[in-house]
Amino acid sequence: MKNPKPNQPKFFIWSLVARVWKDNQQFFLILTCIVFFKSAIADLSSISGASMQPTLLDGDKIWVNKLAYDIKVPFTEISLKRLSAPKRGDIVIIDSKKAGKRLVKRIIGIPGDTILMQSNTVTINGKPVNYEIVSEDGEAITIQESIDNSHKIRITNNFSPGKIRTFGPTQVPTEEFFVLGDNRDNSADSRVYSFIPRGELIGRSSSVIFSLDNENYYFPRAKRFFSKLD
């Protein structure tokens, strides 16, 4: 009695896979390392929109340090070890479930803080934040805001009912954060999506790697290459 013939199509597929793996092992290993690095260690994030102006511009590519706060299991929000606590003033990249997308915002309130906004003036734990006008044009005012660091924010001159300039007072819950965009009248942030759980913080950014001007045929903004962020 003759032995049954193997399943020819299935045998051919596995043979092809084995040959591809054998011929490209080094490539697949490098690819795996790159994917692991981007997921757990560091990555680049693209800025789209105006919510972080004047700090970040549409077309910026920023460096994301994914080990800034936690060591996480790759592709998950599971923290293996906490490295440091997020601070007021940090620019953070957020995997927001409520927004259904990635956000880039600035931490204004940490757990336990009481936050109050009145006409875009922020008060933290009863102490008003220091402000200094830097410049003004027909559309907006640029202001130096000092929390735990000093950075510029943008306030538009014209008020519309859709803008949220007053918020709170409210206390930031444990393990959550209150975040705002630097372009205060053009940002969907904690005023819209509420507090941000720590587990949704992907990482922290402190520099722009490169920048392309979307409104000028994607011409490079050379002055922004490898620039530090406040």
Secondary structure elements and pairings:
Elements lengths: L7 H16 L1 H16 L1 E5 L13 E6 L4 E3 L6 E4 L8 E6 L4 E9 L4 E5 L2 E4 L2 E2 L1 E7 L3 E7 L3 E7 L10 E5 L4 E5 L9 H4 L2 E2 L3 E5 L1 E7 L5 E2 L6 E2 L2
Antiparallel strand pairs: 1-2, 2-17, 3-4, 5-6, 5-16, 6-14, 7-8, 7-13, 8-9, 10-11, 11-12, 14-15, 17-18, 17-19
Question: Describe it for me?
Answer:
Helix content is 16%, strand content 40%. The relative contact order is 0.18. The model has no long low-confidence stretch (mean pLDDT 89).
The CATH topology label of the domain at 41-114 and 173-228 is Umud Fragment, subunit A
Q: What order do the SSEs take from the amino end to the carboxyl end, as H and E? A: HHEEEEEEEEEEEEEEHEEEEE
Sheet of most strands: 5 strands, antiparallel
> Mind telling me the CATH superfamily name of the domain at 41-114 and 173-228?
Umud Fragment, subunit A
Count up the helices.
3
Reading off the top of the CATH hierarchy, the class of the domain at 41-114 and 173-228 is best stated as: Mainly Beta
> Uncertain segments of ≥5 residues (pLDDT<50)?
none
Question: Which radius of gyration do the C-alpha atoms yield?
Answer: 23 Å
Proportion in helices: 10-25%
